[in-house]
Amino acid sequence: MHALSPEALSSYWSANEIATNIVVFMNLVGALLLGFILGYERSYHGRAAGMRTYGLVCVASCAVTVICGYPNSWFGGSALAQQAGTLPITDPTRVIQGIVTGVGFLGAGVIMKEGLNISGLTTAASIWAASVIGILVGIGFYGAAILLTLLSAGCMLYVSRLEAWLPSRHAISVKLCFAPEFMPQEALVRKALLDMGYEVAGGSFSVGYQGRAQEWRFVAVALGQGIGKPLAEMPASLIGLDGVDSFNVAHARN
């Protein structure tokens, strides 16, 4: 049987292949939902990696793993190899391992960090998911590849709206520069933030000293959705703090 014969091509859409793809469908959907749950916990606490990032990584990881459980369905059921009474010469799992590792380094290149602001996490996760889609197509799981494409695109397009609708606590980065030789009091700074609807995130506080002046940097998390003041309304409160010479406020962990 020729590799491009109708019989060989139809083996990729045989009843067994379709049944296998349905099982993979259910695994992918379940993994995506579980990834969303885990990502929402991080998103709620103002972390950089949220529902989209966790969902993409979880569903792509599931796709790579679940196909290893159905070797008889690889490459259209390995019809040509089975007809000859031999198994495929190359082990696809070794190729897959190299692909996901190499693309992981590529994805790391699009993650940008500037101070406490992080961007590119979802793009990196989507690049990794795209590599898994290519693996599924190459191994013959066309239906699973189509579903993973739709799930990934839907995740990037609509989950941000879901995150905005669900209760969350957005985070901001704060930099306070005090007058030379002024000794600020942390309790007063924390109280001012509470009055604006924020609290200092644990483990984010850092203190610098330059030119006889202290510089404080930290992440503040809103007490609840819609509670924290918008950035445009914060200067009036921050400039009123004793000893503050200058400051910078920006959205953090985006």
What are the SSEs and their pairings?
Layout: H1 6-10, H2 15-44, H3 51-66, H4 74-83, H5 92-108, E1 112-114, E2 117-119, H6 121-139, H7 142-165, E3 171-178, H8 186-195, E4 198-200, E5 206-210, E6 213-222, H9 235-238, E7 244-251
Helix pairs in contact: 2-3, 2-7, 3-6, 3-7, 5-6, 6-7
Task: Explain what you see.
This protein folds into 2 domains: 160 residues, no CATH class; 81 residues, 2-Layer Sandwich (Alpha-Beta Plaits). It is built from 9 helices and 7 strands. Helix 2 runs antiparallel to helix 3, helix 2 packs parallel to helix 7 and helix 6 packs antiparallel against helix 7. It is elongated.
Structure at a glance:
The chain has helices spanning 6-10, 15-44, 51-66, 74-83, 92-108, 121-139, 142-165, 186-195, 235-238; strands at 112-114, 117-119, 171-178, 198-200, 206-210, 213-222, 244-251. It is α+β, with helices and mostly antiparallel strands and 254 residues long.
- Major pleated sheet: 5 strands, antiparallel
* Uncertain residue segments: none
Q: SSE string, helix = H, strand = E?
A: HHHHHEEHHEHEEEHE
Number of separate domains: 2
Count of strand segments: 7
User: What structural category arises from helix and sheet content?
Assistant: alpha+beta
Shape descriptor reads: elongated
Contiguous helical run count: 9
Question: Helix coverage percent of residues?
Answer: 40-55%
What is the typical, i.e. mean, pLDDT?
Answer: 77
Strand content: 15-25%
Question: What keywords describe this structure?
Answer:
single chain; Alpha-Beta Plaits; 5-stranded antiparallel beta sheet; two-stranded antiparallel ribbon; elongated
